[in-house]
Structure formats: structure tokens, C-alpha cells
Amino acid sequence: MFYGSVMERSSESEITLPPDKWLAVAVAVCSGFLLLVASALLPMQAILTAIGLLVCALLGFVIASPGQPQLRAVLPTELETPLVLASDELVYDRYNRIAKLLIKVSRQQDPIYRSIAIDQLDNLVKSLTSIASGTLTFEGTETWRIVYELLLRSPGLYLYRSVAWIKNANYWQDEPGRKSLQVNYELFEQERINIERIAIINDGLWPLTEPRPVEPVLSWLHEQHARGIWIKIVRESALRSEPDLVADIGIYGSRALGIQELDEECRTERFLLTFDFARVADAEGRWNRLAVYAESYGVHLDRTVPIG
Predict the structure, then answer these.
(1) Phi then psi for 276, rounded to 5 degrees?
(2) What pLDDT sits at residue 173?
(3) Quick one: which of 217, 203, 212, 207 has its CA closest to 170?
(4) 199: closest CA among 242, 245, 132?
């Protein structure tokens, strides 16, 4: 009985032994046999070379083995990162500079410094995570204008769609706003880009009892219309049932989506720029829905009192 149970356990262990273990045993046996043969036929230098090649082969086998997921996940990431980045000179330069700075941080031993430094590094990682996902953040009006113009002048961009959420009469009345509008006119008149704009106007600036928006909003709209820019208008209250349509955005062809975060005075606090195609496509869908509610400024003008 004892013999039989031992045989049964032995048989079970043979059946359940993973295939990769059998492969490892086979490789070890074959390697040992080859070295024995080599020791009888080859000089010592050749034997050492053979041993080195076998070690490299076995290391590769261990890394690629299904039983070593941690090695496969860690080694390529940590060891291959510089090699992968080396083909991109600009990114590789930043990688090197960041790595050197992190070494300096790690050498600091003051616990208070390290606690604060780690928190700030976490913020940097959060920022880099956003950048890696295709979203860039800009603070302040002037930085927004520079990026805005850079995108509009970029080769291959032929359509710019803008939603202007006008909550205050000062919308785009400051110097950066006027400069951006001049860029619109310049590129449109050079036939480099087609510009379409929908203005969502707060009811306080366009009361239901009034046929036209107040100044200087009206002049801002009329100037663009007169310069050939495609303009549609809609009261904010008309969009109560679809609040997701109320936003201040720019759609740069199928390339990028810009989102302006404005304060109550319509000054840009933050500008988000994403190159995520799914978000650009979603914005296009919302634009099409918004266009259903909006009316052509030219048609509206024909129905109202002429502007002097």
C-alpha cells in the first residue's frame, strides 16, 4: 500500500509539473551535456565563451518565462527606458536632467525637506501624468493667447470652431482678446482657415425683451460678421435643458480641443488644451447639438432694427 501510494503521488507530480519546468530541466541537461563535450574537444578560451553564451541564453529564458511576470514587467521598464528615449533627443535631454536632479533630492537627509519635496514631486508626477495623457494646462491670459495663436497658425489646420460663453460685457475686450481676434481676421482673409463661432450670451446681456444684445457685445459680434466670420448666437437660458453645451471652447480641426476657464469678469484663469481624439470628437458632437439651438447672426440681423 505504501509503495502504491508513493507511486500514485509520483505519478500525480509528473502529470501536474508545469511545462515550463520541464523545459528548464531539459535546457539544464542539454547545457551540461554540451559543456562536457566541449571540455573534451575545445580549448579553454572557447569553453569560457560557450559558458558566457549559455548564461546569456538562460537569463533571457528566465526573463521571458511565464513564471516571472515581475521580472518581465520591471526590467524592460527600468533598464530599457534610456534606450527607448535615446531616439528622441529633446525628450531624452529632459529625462537626463530630471534624473540628475532627482539624485540630488535623494541625497538630502533632512526629514522635513524630504517630506515637502516628496509632496511637490507628487504634484510634478500628477502634472506629467496629465501631459502624458495628451492634456496641457496653461495659467493666465497671456500664455493662453500665445498657445491659441500657435495652434491657429499651425500647418494643416483649416477649420477652427469656437464657442464663446459671454457672461460679461468685457468678454474679449482686453488686449489679449483683441489681438486674438486680429489673428482670426488675418488668417481668414488670407484664406488659410475657416472660422465658425457660436456665441452663448448671458440673459443679462441679451434680455428676452430686447431684440439685440447690449454693447459692447453687439459691436463685437457685428464686427466679426462684417469681416466674414461665420457667427451664430443663442441666449444662455435657451440651453437650460442641456447644461453640458454651455462652455467656452475652441475646436482646432480634428487635432485638439481648447477649454477656457473664465472668472466672472470673463478673464482667462486657465486654459486646458487636449490632443485626445476622443475628447475632440465628443466636442464636435456637442457643437452640432449647440448649432441646433443657435441662430445665424446675419438672419437675426435681418429681422431686427438695422444697426447704424
Answers:
(1) -75, 115
(2) 87
(3) 217
(4) 245
